[in-house]
Structure formats: structure tokens, C-alpha cells
Amino acid sequence: MRFVACGGSVTMLSGAALIMLDNVMPLALANALLTVAGTAVTTELHARFAFRSGPTGGNTHLQAGLTVLVAYLFTTGAMLTLAGLDANPNALTQQAVYLSASGLAGIGRFLVLRAFVLVPAQRRPAAATIPASGRLFVTARGVHRRMLALAPVFIPRRVPAFS
């Protein structure tokens, strides 16, 4: 619910800002600027409130931006597919296709952000440590459980790194 509230609030504010910027600059430019700004704001809101993963950095914003790009391509593809199937779809059909695609894209973004981008601090994998001897060891505890589920392989308790 927090994910929808954060994203929905910023989207509604962006919609209002788009109307206000309509007389100031071209619509495509205003939309692009608001999309970039909205993505930055929602990434922070999602990190702090929806997923409680803490403050974000540039890499996190880039990854979240890529999820927005994929969502945009998905919704655009859905609308182009509709146009290919029906040259003159009615407004209800267009809205149904667009909102369905947007909903699916939102669910996809949520899953990717939660699993890979905005991971709460207590669920982050432990970093490999360098002991006083200077040799790097990776422990099985330092491997994220989801990564183990994706690649079920035997990981020894301690594996010395090549030097």
C-alpha cells in the first residue's frame, strides 16, 4: 500500500504540474522533465517509506530509472499492439489496455525494486570481509538467500580468494 501511495501521489502531482507547464514549454519536454524528477522523488519515497531501505545513492536512482524505462517500453508496446490490432479503438478500449499495461508494469517495478534495488538493510547480503591476515574470504552467510535459491550450488564455508 505504501508503494502505491508514494507512486500515486507523485504521479498525481506530476499530472497537475504537466498541465501548468503546458503553456511554458512543449508537452514532450515537460513530460520528460517531470518523469525524471518524479522518478527521483519516488525512488527516495519508496526507499524511505515503502521498502524502508534507507537513503539512496546515484546507482540506486539509475537502477530505478531503468525500471521506469522498461515500464515505459512495456506500456508503449501494449498501445502499439492495440493500434496494430484495431486502427480506431474506442476510448474505453484504449484506457483498458493502457491501465492494464501500467498495472502490470507497476507490479513488475515493485517486484524488481523490492528484490534487487531497494533492499532493506537487514536483508542485504553481508559484505565479504578482509581479515587481519590480508586474505579475502567469502562465507556462505554472506550470500543472499535469494541468490542461493536462483543458483543452487554448493558454497564452501570459506573459500580463499586468489592473490
Name a few traits of the molecule.
single chain, 163 residues, mainly alpha, two-stranded antiparallel sheet, 2 strands, 4% strand, disordered C terminus
Describe it:
Strands 1-2 form a two-stranded antiparallel ribbon. It is globular, with a radius of gyration of 21 Å. The protein is mostly helical. Helix 1 packs antiparallel against helix 2 and helix 2 (27-50) crosses helix 3 (58-85). The protein has helices spanning 2-21, 27-50, 58-85, 91-117, 145-150, and strands at 137-139, 158-160. The N and C termini lie far apart (48 Å).
Shape: globular
Q: Which strand order spans the largest sheet, edge to edge or round the barrel?
A: 1-2
Question: What series of H and E elements makes up the topology?
Answer: HHHHEHE
Measure the end-to-end span.
48 Å
Major sheet characteristics? 2 strands, antiparallel
Structural class: mainly alpha
Find the count of extended strands (DSSP E, 2+ residues): 2
Average pLDDT over all residues: 75
Share of helical residues: 55-70%
| Low-confidence runs | 127-131, 134-163
Beta-strand proportion: under 5%
Radius of gyration: 21 Å
Number of helices: 5
Question: What's the structural blueprint in terms of helices and strands?
Answer:
Blueprint: H1 2-21, H2 27-50, H3 58-85, H4 91-117, E1 137-139, H5 145-150, E2 158-160
Helix pairs in contact: 1-2, 2-3, 3-4
